[in-house]
Amino acid sequence: MKERKRLSRREEFEILKLVLDKILLLGFAIVGYGAYLLYNTAGKQGFFVLLTGAIILLIFTVLLIKEYEIVE
User: Fold this and answer.
1) Number of domains in the chain
2) pLDDT at position 36
3) 19 lies in a domain?
């Protein structure tokens, strides 16, 4: 079997930044879309989309805190 190449701490950090950036962008996009739906339709769908975005941002926060504790 081929041996896998190990990533340096810097490379791991760069990959983590890319992944977390995408999660943050996705969360804010969903929150924005939910706010738009809530404003225009005033229905339950906008609220649930907004709530979904908030949950994604909460997951982002948990991942960030977990990674910070590991590094520290």
Assistant:
1) 1
2) 82
3) no
Query: Is residue 65 situated within a structural domain?
Result: yes
Does residue 16 form part of some domain? no
Question: Is pLDDT larger for residue 47 or for residue 2?
Answer: 47
Q: CA-CA distance, 41 to 69, in Å (whole number)?
A: 42
pLDDT tens-digit readout, 25-64:
888 888 888 888 888 886 788 888 888 888 888 888 887 7
Angstrom distance (rounded) from CA 58 to CA 69? 17
- The answer to whether residue 48 is domain-embedded is yes
Q: How many CB atoms lie within 10 A of CB 35?
A: 15
